[in-house]
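ok trying this again, last paste got cut off
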Amino acid sequence: MGKQFKRTLITTALPYANGPVHIGHLAGVYVPADIYARYLRLKGEEVLLIGGSDEHGVPITIRAKKEGVTPQDIVDRFHAIIKQSFADFGITFDVYSRTTSETHRQVASDFFRKLYDKGEFIEQTSEQYYDEEAKQFLADRYITGTCPHCHNEGAYGDQCEACGTSLNATDLINPKSAISGSVPVMKETKHWYLPLDKYEPFLRQWILEGHKEWKSNVYGQCKSWMDMGLQPRAVSRDLDWGIPVPVEGAEGKVLYVWFDAPIGYISNTKELLPDTWETWWKDPETKLLHFIGKDNIVFHCIVFPTMLKAEGTFNLPENVPANEFLNLEGDKISTSRNWAVWLHEYLEEFPGKQDVLRYVLTANAPETKDNDFTWRDFQARNNNELVAILGNFVNRALVLTSKYFDGKVPAAGELTEYDKETLIEFADVKADVERLLDTFHFRDAQKEAMNLARIGNKYLADTEPWKLAKTDMERVATILNISLQITANLAIAFEPFLPFSMQKLNEMLCVEPLGWDRLGQTNLLAAGHQLATPELLFEKIEDSVIEAQIQKLLDTKKSNEEASYRANPVRENIEYDDFTKLDIRVGTVLECAKVPKADKLLQFLIDDGLEKRTIISGIAQHYKPEELVGKQVCFIANLAPRKLRGIVSEGMILSAENADGSLAVIMPQKEVKPGSEVK
């Protein structure tokens, strides 16, 4: 048994106000956080669920520039959409604010200033690209040029989206400013850095020794980061959109968005509770939990705790139950490609079906590995589980009671052994669901709740009260009493998961929410209690509805393919002699491994027929290293060697890019001798 706390503060990753919220966000963060908050409230515990929009950073300025509006216009638009979507979907935030609020500006400024005054930052001057025409330093995304790896002419300063390679802006060939089109110059600039390396011993002890109970995917990522060695991280940027760095000599500089955003949890709490917010952040009797996706693990387990530790008065998170990613129809969700199911569109197209999506996303929760959402599975889970199991049992219990007892709960007579066995079967439901929710196993907890409906269905099917009604109404009364007690238990067990449906069920049972402490009891509804007219909790979803959603995605994919072709037309003709300068050969992959600290890079050892050579390729998001070992690949053999992440790459592996951005390595159809030329 761990430490007991008086209250729980739950934070959810701040969605970026550059677009709406999609099902990947919901499955990874907001549905599990809401389930947990509702569960604690049902138990009568003191809990806050804190949310808000992340509204600073370069992507917002880029979108604003493209649309010819201000960054504030962009965040105002999407903050409103996101906030309304969450409210309509039933995410029970105690506060949902934003990082452009005056409260946040003040809290974030004060936080930086305290660390600055304590001497916690490292001041460092470095050279960065500067646009003399626009008179501003350029963020990596504001610099374009030719990728040194694949020679794509539209690579960004942080990444080439053609080959997937992570870049530094200084790696680009022929760099240009995306603002003015001019050639940028190198100019000195000063920034402040948080010394993560200084806090590495503390983090190792706190996480690796003190929190071995964390989810394996979270613990493992933290260990991997620390094993590679932590480095100081900049907390400021040269930008005009954000919170100004509150020290002299920092004109034109703002707090880096990764430093600014998590402080939003604190400022949003202060906005909600201006007089008592410190109780929730500084009292050791408060448990702090961060619900996030896997792309935010490093910030919430290493960076933000370092900030809190350096400040010195705040609680550290007790747990960070991060989820992995949810894919869509076998493909990675992508906002830029519109490959997503947007929450606000779902709510319009499936009115009244918030709980169906909540149920399916919980059933498919990517708790320890990536998982997949498909519309066919959505339909199957609705029709075969919500309708056929949960809805069917509840409807039969209520309709039979209405038919035989005018909607009044009948008194139970003498129980048979089978009745007693059935009652014993769900006596442990409270302990089982609590154990799973307390350890953040939401998928299995929901499954336990559904097992209660399965017990009810089996009980009705086995006892067949509709047949007994002609001869033994006393027995029918007992069967329906037990069925209604199971129904009332379902209303409690499913309340954190399916709040809209359980509110409807409580109305049909003519009861206020029965309270979590009564889950598992067999006397929830008294004999003679009047029930309301039964209604269906769920309805079948027809094939035509699902086919329309699938077609919508297919249309998106086709549109992306057409746009990709237009964006990548066949280049101008070259002479045959130019082609012959390329020495393309086939090699056999002897070894393949991920490059440390580079999510997109794989390091190959290739047998090229004469010797072994190392090649770095930006395809780590498309292939696992073990998938390529032993395979033959085509590569450019006479590309000038280039150093990437400290490793000399001696060539380039050839890949084809689909319209969705996925890459397929070019391989010969049948095995050839290593070193064979491609002609």
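PB: full thing came through this time. The mean pLDDT is 93.
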